[in-house]
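Is this the right way to post structure tokens for a design question? Let me know if I should format differently. Anyway, here goes:
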């Protein structure tokens, strides 16, 4: 104890074996809940494993630094503050688990510097990653960055020369950062396809030579189908290597206008507009569908090929008087008033 509620051993080099930090300690005949591990509390020592209490909220600067014997650690969900150089030099540390419900919002400077981590998924709650966080992590191969990242520090991945995969799926990718990935030719960046233009305009993402665009790409984003006729959409799903591809589920915003089956086949039901959505896991993509009824429009107006009719815009502007069916066929796609009927020309 360094003070009530804080666990510390002042970097005792004699610590060894499996360490279990209690959730409460007695001090001068009083019981105190352990909420903090003080700075340099367990710095060094021949410790093979460490268990942290669920009551913990804070781990101080270098609080677990240099514990070269530990290979895995679980950070309790209640921890909201991590100190600088938290695990620096824990060269056998390969697995860091943040409990479900974690509220960690930042990873401080050099938090995992010179550790043995090969895969790291930054919690989605994290918005800031400090300088040197993964510096000289020679085993680091894959990192998953949170979508709401607002700050990425200098040399975060410096000298981590074995980094192969960077996964960053964000609708609004971070830009203007001075982070250095050391190498932009070897790692593959898995980015969100729907934000492609933003990535290609943002530093450092635009520097990657190998980018895989993730999400759902539809064969069409706009389609026109007649009543009682069909149109088939296809969906191509691309996911990063950390995800399993899910089945594509098709839905319609208005089944009275258009329906869609499990194979992406759209059928027009009534004149109007509907949005067809394809969803696979966390990805989705839309196709705007216009349903027309040409069979009861143009066919009725021009039941005889010699017949003629006036053509107007929906705003009432006359385009052509005494138009023939050939004139109608030459019109640009859109809605018109032809012979006092509203008709859609595809």
């Amino acid at each position: 104890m360094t003070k009530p509620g804080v666990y510390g051993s002042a970097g005792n080099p004699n610590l060894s074996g499996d360490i279990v930090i209690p959730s409460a300690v007695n001090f001068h005949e009083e019981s105190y809940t352990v909420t903090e591990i003080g700075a340099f509390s367990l710095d060094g020592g021949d410790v093979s494993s460490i268990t942290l209490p669920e009551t913990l909220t804070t781990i101080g600067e270098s609080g677990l630094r240099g514990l070269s014997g530990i290979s895995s650690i679980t950070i309790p969900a209640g921890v909201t503050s991590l100190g600088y150089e938290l695990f620096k030099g824990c060269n056998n540390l390969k697995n860091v688990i943040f409990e479900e419900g974690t509220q960690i919002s930042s990873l401080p400077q050099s938090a995992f510097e010179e550790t043995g981590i090969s895969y790291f998924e930054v919690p989605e709650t994290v918005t800031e990653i400090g300088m040197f966080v993964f510096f000289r992590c020679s085993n680091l191969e894959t990192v998953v960055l949170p979508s709401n990242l607002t700050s990425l520090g200098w040399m975060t991945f410096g000298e981590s020369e074995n980094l192969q995969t960077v996964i960053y799926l964000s609708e609004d990718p971070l830009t203007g950062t001075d982070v250095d990935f050391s190498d932009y030719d070897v790692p593959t960046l898995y980015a969100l396809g729907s934000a492609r233009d933003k990535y290609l305009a943002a530093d450092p993402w635009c520097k990657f030579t190998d980018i895989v665009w993730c999400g759902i790409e539809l064969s069409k984003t706009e389609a026109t189908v007649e009543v009682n006729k069909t149109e088939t959409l296809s969906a191509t799903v691309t996911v990063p290597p950390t995800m399993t591809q899910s089945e594509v589920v098709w839905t319609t915003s208005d089944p009275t206008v258009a329906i869609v089956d499990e194979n992406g086949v759209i059928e027009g039901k009534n004149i109007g507009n509907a949005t067809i959505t394809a969803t696979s896991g966390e990805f989705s993509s839309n196709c705007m569908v216009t349903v027309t009824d040409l069979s009861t429009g143009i066919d009725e107006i021009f039941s005889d090929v010699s017949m003629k009719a006036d053509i107007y815009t929906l705003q009432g502007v006359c385009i052509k008087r005494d138009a023939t069916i050939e004139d109608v066929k030459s019109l640009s796609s859109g809605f018109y008033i032809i012979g006092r009927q509203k008709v859609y020309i595809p």
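Format looks fine. Someone answered above. Worth noting: DSSP finds three helices and 30 strands in the chain. Residues 192 and 218 are 15 Å apart (CA to CA).
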